[in-house]
């Protein structure tokens, strides 16, 4: 067996190698075929998963867009704009000129009507906020108009009481007795509005972190509304124990002015800390 014949190694190994090669090749082919089927199935499954997740993602995005669209539509909806709390707030604004006109009416009728108007305004101030939170009727327009209505009503009442003081001996001797707390309260509201606008321009998150209503603001509002109601009701000289009611109303007004100034200081300190973090 010469190396040149080339038969001996071929015949012995060919059958084995060809058989094994065929078997391996056939098995490999079958495996490849099976693997191809499994791979195709896996690919199809993967494509289906991707397609399904794509549909899910698209559906989520579509749902999110739909929700945003519905929210935007609700905000722009006129029926959503004029909710019951907003109507009550608008009523307080409309009541301001009526309050001014009845204030200068002489007699028990003018005093009674003026006091009732202010008392109803104080009640609706609490009621519209309660209804908005209870029934989820908060709107951006209502949130803007509510403090404006409160400031208009309080400022108008303070100015009226200063221009036409009560017929009481203490006011004839101390004419500045109502002027001092009135300037403090109105000045505080003007300063607060300016500071809020400036802080919002500096950092949009400042207002969210600082503006939250606290107990100090609630006490300020409660004493302020109570004192002004008492002073308006005490304008009738025929009222028994008028001097007692006037003294109590003035004391509450000074307490309200002190709480107003204090709340302004606390508010500005919080803004200063947030801006300098």
Write up what this structure looks like.
Helices cover 84% and strands 0% of the residues. By secondary structure, it is an all-alpha fold. Helix 8 (204-210) packs across helix 10. It is globular and about 55 Å long.
- Count of individual helical segments: 10
Distance between the termini: 96 Å
Structural class: mainly alpha
What's the story with the biggest beta sheet?
Answer: none
Coarse shape = globular
Q: How many β strands by DSSP? A: 0
Question: What is the radius of gyration?
Answer: 40 Å
Overall pLDDT metric: 75
Helix proportion: over 70%
Portion in strands: under 5%
The topology string of helices and strands comes to HHHHHHHHHH
Which parts are unreliable, with pLDDT below 50 for 5 consecutive residues or more?
1-72
Features:
single chain, 277 residues, mainly alpha, globular
Give the helix/strand layout:
Layout: H1 8-76, H2 78-81, H3 84-103, H4 108-134, H5 140-163, H6 169-173, H7 179-202, H8 204-210, H9 215-233, H10 242-275
Helix pairs in contact: 3-4, 3-5, 4-5, 4-9, 5-7, 5-9, 7-8, 7-10, 8-10, 9-10
């Amino acid at each position: 067996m010469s190396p040149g014949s080339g038969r001996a190694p071929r015949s012995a190994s060919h059958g084995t190698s060809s058989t094994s090669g065929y078997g391996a090749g056939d098995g490999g082919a079958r495996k490849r075929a099976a693997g191809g089927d499994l791979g195709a199935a896996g690919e199809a499954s993967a494509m289906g998963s991707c397609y399904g997740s794509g549909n899910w993602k698209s559906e989520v995005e579509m749902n999110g867009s739909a929700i945003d669209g519905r929210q935007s539509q609700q905000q722009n909806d006129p029926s959503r704009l004029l909710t019951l709390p907003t109507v009550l707030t608008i009523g307080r604004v409309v009541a301001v000129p009526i309050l001014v006109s009845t204030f200068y009416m002489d007699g028990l009728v003018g005093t009674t009507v003026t006091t009732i108007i202010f008392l109803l305004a104080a009640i609706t101030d609490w009621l519209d906020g309660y209804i908005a939170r209870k029934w989820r009727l908060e709107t951006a327009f209502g949130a803007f108009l509510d403090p404006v209505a409160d400031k208009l009503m309080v400022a108008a009442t303070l100015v009226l009481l200063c221009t036409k003081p009560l017929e009481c001996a203490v006011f004839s001797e101390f004419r500045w007795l109502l002027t001092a707390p009135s300037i403090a309260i109105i000045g505080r509201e003007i300063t607060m509005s300016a500071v809020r606008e400036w802080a919002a321009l500096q950092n949009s998150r400042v207002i969210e972190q600082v503006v939250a209503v606290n107990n100090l603001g609630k006490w300020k509002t409660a004493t302020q509304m109570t004192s002004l109601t008492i002073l308006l009701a005490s304008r009738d000289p025929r009222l028994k124990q008028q001097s007692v009611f006037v003294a109590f109303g003035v004391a509450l007004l000074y307490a309200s002015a002190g709480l107003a100034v204090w709340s302004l200081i606390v508010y500005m300190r919080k803004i200063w800390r947030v801006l300098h973090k």
